[in-house]
Automatic annotation (TrEMBL):
One of its GO terms (biological process) is proteolysis. InterPro entries: Metalloprtase-TldD/E_C, PmbA, TldD/PmbA_N, TldD/PmbA_sf. Transmembrane segments: none annotated. Residues 1-21 are annotated as: Disordered. Pfam families: PmbA_TldD_3rd. One of its GO terms (molecular function) is metallopeptidase activity. Residues 146-227 form the Metalloprotease TldD/E C-terminal domain. This is Metalloprotease TldD/E C-terminal domain-containing protein. GO terms for cellular component: cytosol. Signal peptide: none annotated.
């Protein structure tokens, strides 16, 4: 549907082609085979460590944790016949808790992950989660005598805007965009965000939990086009688990 929709609208007069690179760039995606040895029991043990570490801290109540281990393999040939197949692996997760210190309970979370066994440590995740939760509960003062910018961090805005953000995210999902069913379908070409807003989408970042040699635009640094392709994605293994709030 997205491809048909794009063709029906014709060429975009505002589209500017990316410059040709001076030399071919090869994106190397690291793959740690040691991640293949992680079992569901090992992940469950990490979950227990995470929960117990947070629960042992005074004024903190464990809320939720999720851990993910993903092993994936993509076999793809682009429209120029170039094979850009790759495979990736990663392990990471999140931990959330609330603090009962003070008059109003505060909620915060921490997310970490890596593409190797050494790059993700469950104790580091627990430590940073505790730090963020305690920081959210710390008293904050602000000088209102002059105009100052206010920056809401994710930990501060989740409770207020979380539901609205998820609603907006659903409205802007790929299926809705393809069919034009978004709140901004009649705002093409108009500014709908603050002028200095920047969103970076880098699917080929080798430091991410799950990386690839291509993204939604193909491989722009090498000016390849993913329009006519043979694509087969193979999720070789996916293990995940979560611990919910336990009163």
């Amino acid at each position: 549907p997205a491809l048909s929709n794009a063709k029906s609208k014709g060429k975009d007069p505002d589209f500017k082609s990316l410059p040709l690179p001076s030399k071919k760039t090869v994106t190397k995606i690291p793959y740690d085979k040691k991640l293949e040895k992680i079992t569901s029991d090992m992940i469950a043990e990490d979950q227990t460590i995470l929960k117990d570490t947070i629960t042992d801290v005074k004024h903190l109540k464990f809320l939720q944790s999720q851990l993910f281990l993903a092993l994936s393999e993509d076999r793809l040939v682009n429209s120029n016949g170039i094979d850009i197949s790759s495979k990736s692996a990663g392990y990471g997760g999140m931990a959330a808790a609330i603090t009962t210190k003070g008059l109003i309970p505060n909620y915060a979370f921490e997310i970490q992950g890596g593409n190797s066994v050494e790059s993700f440590n469950i104790n580091d995740l627990a430590k940073e989660a505790i730090y963020e939760i305690q920081r959210a509960a710390a008293p904050k003062t602000m000088n209102f005598e002059k105009e100052v910018p206010i920056i809401l961090e994710p930990e501060a805005s989740t409770g207020i805007m979380g539901g609205l953000f998820l609603l907006l995210l659903n409205q802007l999902s790929g299926d809705n965009v393809a069919s034009g069913a978004t709140p901004y379908s009649d705002q093409v070409g108009n500014l709908i965000s603050v002028e200095d807003f920047t969103l970076i989408d880098n699917g080929i970042n080798p430091e991410k939990l799950s990386s690839s040699t291509y993204d939604g635009e193909g491989m722009p640094r090498e000016k390849t086009v993913l329009v006519t392709v043979f694509l087969e994605g193979n999720g070789r293994d996916l293990k995940s688990g979560s611990l919910p709030l336990d009163f």
